[in-house]
């Protein structure tokens, strides 16, 4: 059974400079056993803000999530605004729940799968205007020499005729 996601509280230090992302600074107390002293340790996280509802100065609760972004640097998502800074929370776009985000991701993946299936069925055309079937029939003589996806598309096209 997977462990629950890590939940942290922090302050938004940079908002509006990145699309759907903000920087949040979290602090924690650390004890140094040699010095026998507590001191604060700060860490900055890139956090996903899907609806761009955060402003600089907001105190937020964030949770660990699947890495996002072009380089996977966004590893947290906003779950709640604890103390807003500036306009009240009611005037801002709502923060989606984890179920809403999962549902949106599923819908996006299903649409992508449907688009891929439609492209496969329409028989992609080359620059010279010939279909996949015409190109491979002229090149190699039939579907038995083709491999992978091209063979499946060509066999479906031949079965439809």
Structure in words:
By secondary structure, this protein is of the alpha+beta class. 29% of the residues lie in helices and 35% in strands. It has a 5-stranded mixed β-barrel. The chain is elongated. The model has no long low-confidence stretch (mean pLDDT 82).
Topology order in helix (H) and strand (E) letters: EEEEEHHH
Characterize the biggest β-sheet. 5 strands, mixed, barrel
Q: Could you tell me the strand content as a percent range?
A: 25-35%
Mass-distribution shape:
elongated
Judged by helices, strands and strand pairing, the structural class is alpha+beta
Biggest sheet strand line-up: 1-2-3-5-4
Unreliable sequence segments: none
Helix percent reads 25-40%
Number of helices: 3
Span of the ends, CA to CA: 51 Å
How many beta-strand elements? 5
Mean pLDDT across all amino acids: 82
Rg (C-alpha, Å): 26 Å
């Amino acid at each position: 059974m997977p462990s629950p996601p890590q939940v942290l509280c922090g302050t938004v230090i940079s908002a509006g400079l990145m699309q759907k992302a903000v920087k949040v600074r979290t602090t924690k107390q650390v004890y140094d056993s040699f010095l026998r002293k507590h001191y604060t340790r700060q860490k900055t996280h890139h956090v996903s803000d899907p609806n761009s509802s955060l402003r600089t100065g907001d105190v937020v609760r964030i949770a660990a999530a699947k890495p996002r972004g072009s380089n996977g640097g966004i590893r947290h998502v906003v779950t709640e605004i604890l103390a807003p800074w500036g306009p009240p929370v009611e005037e801002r776009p709502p923060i989606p729940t984890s179920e809403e985000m999962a549902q949106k991701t599923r819908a996006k993946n299903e649409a992508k799968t449907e688009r891929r299936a439609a492209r496969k069925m329409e028989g992609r055309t080359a620059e010279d205007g010939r279909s996949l079937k015409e190109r491979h029939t002229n090149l190699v003589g039939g579907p038995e020499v083709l491999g992978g996806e091209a063979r499946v598309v060509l066999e479906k096209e031949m079965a439809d005729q």
